Amino acid sequence: MGAQVSVPDGVHVVVVGGGFGGIAAAQQLRSAGFGFTLLDLRDSFHHNVAALRASVQPGFAQRTFIPYAETFGTSFLQGRVERVDPEGQLVVLQGGREVHYSHLILCTGSDGPFPGKFNTEASLQDGVTIQAADSVLVVGGGATGVEMAAEIKTEYPDKKVVLIHSRIGLADPLMAQSVRQQAKEVLLEKGVELVLDQKVSNLSELPLNRTQKNLQVRTDKGETLETDLVICCTGIRVNSGAYASSLAADGALKVNQYLQVEGFSNIFAVGDCADLREAKLAYHAGLHAYVAVSNIISSLSGKPLTPYRTGYVSMLLAMGRDDGVGQFNGVRLPRWLVALGKSRDLLLWKSWREMQQKQP
Length: 360
Ligand SMILES: Cc1cc2nc3c(=O)[nH]c(=O)nc-3n(C[C@H](O)[C@H](O)[C@H](O)COP(=O)(O)OP(=O)(O)OC[C@H]3O[C@@H](n4cnc5c(N)ncnc54)[C@H](O)[C@@H]3O)c2cc1C
Fold this sequence. Notes:
Helix content: 10-25%
Oligomer: single chain
Largest sheet: 5 strands, parallel
Strand order of the largest sheet: 5-2-1-9-18
CATH class of the domain at 12-41 and 79-112 and 236-311: Alpha Beta
CATH superfamily of the domain at 12-41 and 79-112 and 236-311: FAD/NAD(P)-binding domain
Shape: elongated
Order of helices and strands: EHEEHEHEEEEEEEHEHEEEEEEHEEEHH
Radius of gyration: 21 Å
Number of strands: 21
Bound molecules: flavin-adenine dinucleotide
Strand content: 15-25%
CATH architecture of the domain at 12-41 and 79-112 and 236-311: 3-Layer(bba) Sandwich
């Protein structure tokens, strides 16, 4: 893609959500010469892949926010979409403003606890309280929890870091067993203590992301762990608020192989909010965006649509800034290569380049 296409009158694409999927879609629409509106409740793209580093390195956070308006000008509109009206072909923003579309790309992504996700309740100041804690407990040993524990132990080798996980196997179950095992080995090499096959039973009573001496954390196996800081890395859920009432979904959007939302030829779902049997990844959101925009172009010119096919699993885990584990297209990569390719800069350069702005 990239070449301008002849866009019929009346075509205006609305992209809801400027995460990894949304900015990829908006860039492709712009290169192809489409009129479009990118909507997001924030004024800046948040690079959540790099968010964990921002909580251990003071000053890093500003690199994880890239302002939309500088890239997209008046094609960007800030606001929270509260409703989609497929009959009237419009989206309704908080406050009542309506934006009409001929084609709609929904990329509302997912939300979860700070610091992995930066939602409205979170404050950037929360990230730096790690400095004041002598011990940190990370809850949840999925991909985010594994990366979080490694980031903290790398920046603060003298702090006690404990990772508690409800299962034996760490990281994402879609990753190769050997890569998951390697993640465990790196954590142990760095000195992270693992509490596996146990669940925190009093999580709702504990303060999160805030240092407080001698917090008592209880587990479902009757153990009590003492820590100064609890960071929660579980509980990612799809942001369905924009469309739940009209598109009959209280979670991810059901899509066909062309990424069209079930029942609509002009509404597409991209990224974490699309119900696809694959890992929820920024990398996949970019691939989905490409297919959705290609299919809008094909549908306007009467060409056959392109199906989206899930590929072999590609996932990289930054184990702090100096180490990493992962696989590309199902093949395990050497640790030094992941460290070089992902962990050093967390692929921030790629998003700044995509947004055509200079990284501070
Ligand atoms: C800590 C962490 C590390 C990760 N590491 C990797 C990695 O290394 N590689 C990788 O490929 N993936 C990684 N991921 C996963 C990746 O971040 C997600 O898959 C990706 O962000 C999904 O992109 P998206 O565009 O679907 O949604 P999101 O990035 O979640 O963006 C959604 C956007 O929609 C906006 N929005 C939501 N609702 C509304 C509304 N009603 N109105 C207006 N705007 C709205 C939000 O403000 C947000 O900007 C990681 C995730 C986390 C949490």
